[in-house]
Automatic annotation (TrEMBL):
Superkingdom: Bacteria
Transmembrane segments: 30-57, 87-112
Name this polypeptide is given: DUF4190 domain-containing protein
Organism: Nocardioides jiangxiensis
Assigned keywords, A-Z: Membrane, Transmembrane, Transmembrane helix
Length: 122
């Protein structure tokens, strides 16, 4: 009695795989705004203290993005970018506060003379 080879595999449905996870659509934007706000916040300590207020943008945008990423069950990525953008936004806001306190202190103690900036007409 000869043994027959096994039959070829069937042509049924292919195995179903989930798609590759996508990055959250706002993750890159939040991260970029965090970097910009951090740079402007650092500059704002020395010149215009309100530059770091752009740090509010990544701070406000990150809350909903984090909730959406966590609720996606792994279908969305970018949580690290969103969290890092949020942290940079918080640091920028803190730098803005430091700049404001520093400028107010320098104005109050007379180190910065406001009259020096008056224009004269010739």
């Amino acid at each position: 009695m000869s043994s027959l080879p096994p039959p070829p595999p069937g042509y049924g449905y292919p195995p179903q795989y989930g798609g590759a996870p996508m990055e959250h659509p706002r993750a890159g934007t939040i991260f970029a705004l965090g970097i910009v706000s951090l740079v402007l916040g650092a500059i704002g300590v020395f010149c215009c203290a309100f530059l770091g207020l752009i740090g509010l943008a990544p701070l406000l945008m990150s809350g909903s993005a984090i909730r959406e990423i966590e609720a996606s069950g792994g279908a969305l990525t970018g949580l690290d970018k969103v969290r890092n953008g949020r942290i940079m936004g918080i640091i920028a806001i803190c730098l803005t506060a430091v700049g404001l306190i520093l400028n107010i202190t320098l104005l109050a103690t007379g180190v910065i003379d406001v009259n020096r900036f008056e224009t004269t007409n010739y």
